[in-house]
Design brief:
The structure holds two protein chains of two kinds.
Chain A lengths: L2 E2 L13 H11 L2 H27 L4 H32 L8 H6 L12 H16 L4 E2 L1 H8 L6 H6 L4 H25 L10 E3 L1 H16 L7 H11 L1 H10 L3 H22 L4 H5 L14 H5 L1 E3 H7 L10 H12 L5 E5 L6 H13 L11 E5 L1 H5 L5 H18 L2 E5 L18 H7 L6 E6 L1 H8 L3 H6 E5 L5 H19 L2 E2 L1 H14 L7 H17 L4 E2 L1 H12 L3 H13 L1 H6 L6 H15 L10 E6 L6 H13 L5 E5 L8 H6 L7 H8 L4 E5 L6 H13 L1 E3 L5 E3 L4 E6 L3 H9 L4 H15 L4 H5 L3 E4 L5 H21 L3 E3 L2 H11 L6 H22 L7 E4 L6 E3 L1
Parallel strand pairs in A: 1-3, 2-3, 5-8, 5-9, 6-7, 7-8, 10-11, 12-17, 12-18, 13-14, 14-17, 19-20
Antiparallel strand pairs in A: 4-6, 15-16, 20-21
Chain B lengths: L2 H31 L2 H6 L18 H48 L1 H15 L1
Helix pairs in contact in B: 1-3
Chain lengths: 872, 124
């Protein structure tokens, strides 16, 4: 069979590939049948063996014994032959020799036969697809035919179930599609003049080639040399139009399929590894004799500690470290030194310090670490237990003296002390248990190895001031894991939790946890925040619902409860809000058409996520005179976009004019920064930087980083994300230019140009600062007509408030005219108007209400000249 | 390459390597299981590091009594460690022997299978 290709230049020739020969052999002698024969021969040879020995007990038919021995020998021979054949097939025919690496192949795919790089299962899938194409007379092997056939693979059931994809429905759709394609093909063939020539060539079309190429790339990404079934499935998610459509309908991304394939592979590998009982790691789980005879007794230490090594040995599967490999190497190096052999892991709670210690312990248990560390015992000191029941620091110190000297005498102990900062220095009650002096006594002993952990805050507050710890402990920083790694950690954890709660976790739910935690929770890092949410959702479902499946809606509900942000609603409404943003803002803002339009457009651009964005959701600089609606627009945006005006973090930048004020902004090792803590606790907010021009230039530089990279590091070294904030900076610098230009009836873009020129000339802002904003929005001065509308809006608010008390107020045009007459001041915009309403209306109303002159059910009117209130 | 050549290559080159690897795993495991190298290195060490130190500050009598204790601590270590080392070495020899037999049986397996089958037919 000859293979021909169109546009895409890949060499794919199954008939010249060894792996396809193996598939052909397997078609003749199916592996499943061979496995059945193997079991059958095993039973038969055991049967023969049993009856050979049976006459020894019951010796009346000795003649039969010989025949049973013969049967035993024959079936034993057959059993060995089938076993050897199966091993040969698995080890040789299924894994053909590869001449060059897959990554080299992709550099010049036209030179090498990509068919050689398929795994056996993938080759079998393509073989079956070709058969289908021939039998249905489809003419071409396309990605869709491949997709149709891959649905039959039982191994992928896991992926379909987790992705909540209905396999049967998809198959039905595909069958219909292929049927229509087949009949269309037949019609076009009939009509074509070429139909007379019988085309025996089977074409692997463009979509198939692109899928295979993508699959090869995915295989390389995960370090594989063969294109597996999962890689082809992921490739289809990237390339096949029909599959992409199905995924879009389900709200799944193609990366989601890649993740699911990774998950399936992880489980499969775990099972396969466990089956290989002869592997050294699996044998080591049987333990050992006399390992600790060379070490001293640790009676007290055992009482106050947890043996992590023993826990690791009892685990049924190997732990995997998905991140922090460099930190692990650093930990091993630190502990293997002769001096200063203690390590201090510094990182936020829940960042993965404990996992790192457990993985390190596993390496030690299996003798895979450095020789000095291999086979040592890793014990976690329970400081709570040490302190509990003691009568003051004296007793704690004597207990610790006993424990530490035992650890040294034993000679094979690595001690883990979690949250060391809580027991060193400090001022609070628990921190009076200062173990620093005891620690100092032993720390220089080469046989005293410690892994301590702490948070950034604890490190700066309590540990850093203790010089001996800084010099004897090697500091290893553990950073937050990426969203991708967090997702994989969650997939692993979900399997364990599922067993405890008897629930099924869907992949969309897991992806939703990562998505929502990343957006709305910043108080703890990944993976902790994601694992916490997963557990909370599991508890919620198992306790309060009858459902057995964990869905994204459940996740949204729990995150909403945790953060008090209606996340599900926001997600649904965001599209609607974005499309209707101008109208929504105009409910509160009068005129400023250009400004509102510019903000709306910029936000739509930013949120459409055309390019990958690592910056805040939107960043704007509002320029204009006082009282023209800059802050009001920000409030309106906070209300429509974040659900409430309260989701606005407001900073008066005139309070940050000195370099010292940076500390108030981002904090210091000793104190948390007011602003940064607020953003950390409310990551889904609008940040309003009022009068930005008044801030110190260094503070502007700090914001330069926020606008550019979307994050800021606080005073104690924690990274605070601004990706889910909208940042609005306001300034009334150059307001006079706007006023003059408006009077001269200049266009807004010319006004903006002149205004920016003025700002740069005066050195108020640097061009690189201005350029970081998604939009620089100029607010015009307000006209008398605008003010009339604003007056109406303000009075509508007064009406609303009174209506709550069942009082109706009539706002006459004369009253509004009077208010404008008093409140119109181009210099102060609407602010003067607000002052007038407060003075003339609200004050009078307040007096009458307190005096009891106005009662619920009354209908009132205000005299526009005297501002006296009368009942109507 | 024909399947027969592939098979012969696997049977006489690849599979023995795998057998050697598994054999090595077992040898290493037995060595580790009985802690042979560690127990041999620490054969005459004090039992569980139990020992008293000598000093000029304390009396000769006390030093002698510490010496006697230390000797017995070492003796106790030797008494407990020796049988484990011997047992471990015994098992190790067994594993070595079984490995040699397995490897030899693997090389002659085609012949053994033919003989087994013929013998089976004869016995029927």
């Amino acid at each position: 069979m000859d293979i021909s290709f169109e546009k895409f230049n890949i060499r794919f020739e199954p008939r010249y590939s060894q792996i396809f020969k193996a598939v052909e052999i397997e078609q003749k002698y199916p592996l499943s049948f061979c496995k059945f024969l193997k079991v059958l021969f095993l039973i038969l040879f055991l049967f023969g063996l049993f009856f050979y020995f049976f006459p020894l007990v019951w010796p009346f038919f000795p003649i039969l014994a010989q025949s049973f021995l013969g049967l035993f020998l024959i079936f034993l021979t057959f059993w060995i032959v089938t076993s050897i054949w199966l091993s040969f097939f698995e080890q040789v025919l299924k894994k053909t020799k590869l001449e060059v690496s897959l990554s080299e192949i992709l550099v010049s795919p036209e030179k090498f036969n990509l068919a050689n790089y398929l795994s056996f299962d993938s080759a079998k899938l393509i073989f079956k697809t070709k058969k289908l194409v021939k039998s249905k007379k489809l003419g071409q092997v396309s990605s869709t035919t491949l997709f149709f056939k891959i649905l039959e693979e039982k191994r992928l059931n896991f992926i379909f179930q987790r992705a909540l994809l209905n396999q049967k429905e998809i198959k039905k759709t595909l069958r219909g599609f292929l049927k229509s394609f087949s009949s269309e093909k037949a019609r076009s063939k009939k009509a074509s003049s070429e139909s007379k020539v019988k085309n025996r060539n089977l074409i692997f079309d463009q979509s198939f080639q692109e899928t295979l190429y993508k699959a090869a790339k995915i295989a390389i990404k995960k370090g594989s040399q063969r294109i597996g079934l999962g890689d082809i499935f992921s490739g289809l998610a990237h390339q096949d139009l029909l599959f992409k459509k199905i995924l879009a309908l389900q709200g799944l991304k193609k990366e989601g399929i890649e993740n699911l394939c990774w998950w399936e592979r992880l489980l499969r590998r775990r099972i396969e590894e466990r089956k290989k009982w002869w592997q050294y790691n699996n044998l080591l789980r049987l333990g050992e004799i006399g390992r600790d005879w060379a070490a001293g007794y640790t009676i007290n230490l055992d009482e106050f500690s947890l043996d992590i090594s023993e826990i690791i040995k009892k685990k049924k599967y190997n732990l995997e470290l998905l991140s922090h490999q460099k930190e692990l190497e650093s930990l091993e190096r630190s502990l293997s030194r002769q001096t200063q052999n203690c390590a201090l892991l510094v990182g936020e709670a829940g960042v993965g310090k404990r996992t790192l210690i457990e993985y390190f312990t596993q390496k030690i248990v299996f003798g895979e670490s450095l020789p000095v560390l291999n086979y040592q015992r890793v014990l976690k000191l329970d400081m709570g237990l040490v302190i509990a029941g003691s009568h003051g620091i004296g007793e704690v110190e004597s207990r610790l003296n006993l424990i530490f000297s035992e650890a040294i005498r034993a000679g094979n102990i690595i001690l883990v002390i979690e949250n060391l900062d809580q027991f060193i220095g400090g001022e609070r009650e628990i921190e009076r248990m200062n173990i620093a002096p005891v620690l100092q006594k032993y720390i220089q002993n080469p046989e005293f190895r410690i892994i301590a952990s702490t948070t950034y805050e604890g490190f700066h507050k309590n540990i850093e001031p203790q010089e001996f710890i800084s010099s004897e402990f090697r500091k290893i920083e553990i950073k937050e894991v990426s969203e991708e790694v967090a997702l994989r950690i969650l997939e692993k954890r979900a399997l364990v939790m599922e067993q405890n709660y008897k629930l099924f976790t869907s992949y969309p739910a897991i992806a939703e946890i990562i998505n929502l935690c990343s957006k709305y929770i910043q108080t703890s890092p990944f993976p902790k925040k994601a694992v916490d949410v997963l557990e909370e959702v599991m508890v919620y479902i198992s306790k309060y619902t009858k459902s057995k499946v964990l869905l994204p809606e459940d996740v949204a509900k729990i995150v909403s409860e945790k953060t008090e942000i209606p996340v599900g609603k926001i997600k649904k409404e965001e599209k609607e809000i974005l499309l209707n943003l101008e109208n929504l803002i105009h409910r509160r803002i009068v005129d400023q058409e250009e400004a509102v339009k510019e903000v709306s457009n910029a936000l739509r651009r930013a949120r459409s996520e055309i390019t990958k964005r690592e910056r805040p959701m939107g960043t704007f600089l509002f320029l204009g005179p006082t009282g023209v609606g800059k802050t009001e627009t920000s409030k309106a945006l906070a209300e429509v976009y974040f659900g409430s005006e309260k989701r606005m973090i407001r900073l008066d930048m005139s309070e940050y004019q000195n370099i010292e004020s940076i500390e108030r902004l981002i904090g210091s090792p000793k104190a948390e920064g007011h602003f940064i803590t607020e953003v950390r606790e409310n990551p889904f907010s609008l940040v309003l930087l009022d009068e930005i021009e008044k801030a110190h230039p260094n503070i502007l530089n700090l914001f330069l980083q926020v606008l550019d990279e979307g994050h800021l590091t606080d005073g104690i070294g924690r990274r605070v994300d601004f990706k889910n904030t909208i940042i609005i900076a306001t300034s009334n610098a150059g307001a006079e230019i706007i006023r003059q230009d408006i009077q001269l009836d200049k266009k807004l873009d010319i006004i903006k140009e002149e205004l920016l020129d003025h700002l740069f000339r005066k050195g108020l802002f640097r061009p690189e600062f201005i350029n970081r904003f998604d939009g620089v929005v100029v607010f015009k001065t307000l006209s008398r007509e605008n003010l009339l509308d604003i007056g109406k809006l303000m009075m509508a608010k007064v009406q609303k408030k009174l209506k709550e008390r069942d009082i109706e107020i009539i706002v006459t045009p004369a009253l509004l005219e009077k208010l404008i007459e008093l409140g119109f001041n181009p210099q102060f915009g609407a602010r003067e108007m607000r002052r007038v309403i407060q003075d003339k209306i609200e004050n009078s109303l307040a007096k009458e209400l307190i005096a009891g002159a106005i009662k619920p059910g009354d209908r009132i009117e205000i005299n526009p000249t005297t501002f006296e209130i009368s009942k109507v | 390459m024909s399947t027969l050549i592939l098979f012969l290559n696997w049977h006489y080159l690849c599979a023995p390597k795998k057998i050697l690897e598994i054999w090595r795993n077992f040898i290493r495991f037995v060595f580790n299981f009985f802690s042979i190298s560690l127990l041999a290195k620490t054969w005459i060490s004090h039992w569980k590091r139990y020992r008293y130190s000598y000093s000029r500050k304390i009396s000769i009598g006390k030093n002698i009594s510490n010496f006697i204790f230390n000797i017995f601590s070492r003796l106790m270590g030797i008494i407990i460690r020796t049988p484990v080392i011997v047992l471990g070495l015994g098992v190790e020899i067994l594993v070595l022997g079984l490995g040699v037999i397995s490897l030899a049986a693997w090389f002659f397996l085609p012949l053994l299978l033919v003989l087994g089958f013929v013998e089976g037919i004869n016995l029927l």
